[in-house]
Backbone:
């Protein structure tokens, strides 16, 4: 393969990855907004949930600096070493860009689990900002229904069943509102996100 062809292939992979990240962000944003409404949160909180939901993984852009250009066989090792940094990196990016402190905190805490098994601070349920608990549930669902290099996408019903198996990770009030949003809203409209570059 010529150097030019290799560069074009890398660009196609980058575009696909970026499109997937945008699609994931939009899904989490839409779901978080709907869950916030099901919980009868103030409209401005629902709006901020949509923003934080879209931007929750922005730290992964910074994370690429740590793993870009490494050989394929070391990439997995580096990903394992740095993957948990994306919450801190994302919070720093948003803080530096002038986002409100509460949105920065929600992004920082979106991988915390209610049983204390999450990261970066191993917070327990009431220590985690309530909106971050919403984003957590929506993020897991959006990841499960997305195709990954190591597995196919799960259908929404199977994704919810898998999440029920891990219910200890989630705020039950949030999870029940999430289930109402998934079953009562037009999930197809929430998930039918066509991204082109």
Residues:
């Amino acid at each position: 393969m010529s150097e030019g062809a290799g560069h074009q292939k890398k660009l196609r992979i980058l575009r696909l990855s970026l499109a997937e990240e945008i699609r994931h962000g939009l899904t989490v944003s839409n779901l978080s907004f709907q869950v916030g409404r099901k919980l009868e949160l103030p409209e401005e909180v629902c709006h901020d949930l949509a923003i934080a939901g879209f931007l929750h993984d922005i730290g992964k852009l910074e994370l690429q600096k740590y793993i870009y250009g490494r050989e394929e066989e070391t990439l997995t090792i580096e990903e394992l070493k740095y993957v948990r940094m994306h919450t801190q990196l994302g919070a720093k990016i948003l803080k530096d860009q002038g986002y409100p402190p509460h949105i920065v905190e929600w992004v920082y805490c979106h991988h915390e689990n209610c049983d204390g098994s999450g990261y970066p601070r191993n917070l327990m349920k009431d220590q985690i900002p309530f909106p971050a608990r919403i984003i957590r549930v929506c993020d897991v669902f959006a990841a499960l229904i997305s195709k990954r290099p190591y597995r196919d996408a799960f259908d929404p019903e199977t994704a919810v069943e898998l999440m029920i198996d891990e219910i200890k990770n989630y705020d039950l009030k949030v999870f029940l509102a999430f289930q109402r949003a998934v079953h009562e809203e037009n999930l197809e409209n929430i998930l039918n996100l066509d991204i082109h570059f």
Residues 9-16 have pLDDT under 50 and may be disordered. Residues 132 and 161 are 22 Å apart (CA to CA). The chain is about 65% helix and 0% strand. The two ends are 24 Å apart (CA to CA).
